[in-house]
Amino acid sequence: MFYVTTCFHALDRGKISSMNFTLGDMLLYFFRGKEIYNPINGAEFMIPTEYMMLQLYLSYMIGDYILKDLLGVGKNILVRTQKRVFWWLSKCVWCVITVIGFYAAVYLSAVFICMITGGSLTTALTPEIAQTVCGIRRAVNDVPVDLQVLRHTVCWLPLVTSVGMALFQMMLALVISPVIAYIVNVALLTAAAYYTVPFLQGNSFMMLRNACCVDGGVNTGLSIGISVAVAVISIIIGKIYFDENGYFKKEMMRQMGCRKWRSRMKIEIQNLCKTIKKV
């Protein structure tokens, strides 16, 4: 819904001509992001709303699902299968499918807009719209921007990056807590708005910071490699943690702490009652 609203806002303001735009133009407009932040020039900088809201909502969808499942039907599955690795891998598959489904909804929203407004259902980019509306330069270091490369980048790079970040968040939710995992995700996305470095994956969602559009931008191949590495490492860490009873030990300690606290309170109450009787 947020994506649809943003696209219609672009149409209403006349930013994108309803007679000439394509599906690719809509995706580029939504994933254009902001140019590289430069505090020296003193220009006002605002974090791109589309960039943040889309990823924060996806992060919310991932949320504490893994712990809810583990404390619910997941326990029964673990008892029946006796294979923790299968349960963890099934959650990773669920995470990837969720991200793919989320982006499918975003792309279908763009298709819906094109169908009802007369746009072309092609991912080809319109040079005029890319340059005047989305802010893409004609050339970088005297080399013309390759719109064919950019069209593939805008279709696939955000999706791959989201998969990596989602698996990373799910691993943190298991190892630490869902709240901390969400806070870390928000912090990384916010930091990416101000610092253009490949290891802050949020930059991969903003085409205006891609190396094919600006000098000093993030490289697409490197960004995909980092996302894949983050995904693989997150899966391995989650597996090791789960195999080593990390979650169960943490839960046991928490429950033991609660029991100790209740025992302590019981003793304090008994002492208080004895004191009152003496009085």
Q: Can you offer a commentary on this structure?
A:
The protein has 279 residues and is mostly helical. It is 69% helix and 1% strand. The chain is built from 11 helices and 2 strands; from the N terminus they run H-H-H-H-H-H-H-E-E-H-H-H-H. The protein has helices at residues 2-12, 23-30, 49-62, 65-71, 73-81, 84-117, 127-132, 147-175, 178-194, 220-243, 246-278, and strands at 139-140, 143-144. The protein has a two-stranded antiparallel ribbon. Helix 3 (49-62) runs antiparallel to helix 9 (178-194) and helix 8 packs antiparallel against helix 9 (178-194). It is globular. Mean pLDDT is 78; it is low at 252-262 and 275-279.
What keywords describe this structure?
279 residues; mainly alpha; two-stranded antiparallel sheet; 1% strand
Structural class: mainly alpha
> DSSP helix count?
11
Give a quick account of the main beta sheet: strands, pairing sense, barrel closure: 2 strands, antiparallel
In helices, the fraction of residues equals 55-70%
List the helices and strands and how they pair.
Blueprint: H1 2-12, H2 23-30, H3 49-62, H4 65-71, H5 73-81, H6 84-117, H7 127-132, E1 139-140, E2 143-144, H8 147-175, H9 178-194, H10 220-243, H11 246-278
Antiparallel strand pairs: 1-2
Helix pairs in contact: 1-6, 3-8, 3-9, 6-8, 6-10, 8-9, 8-10
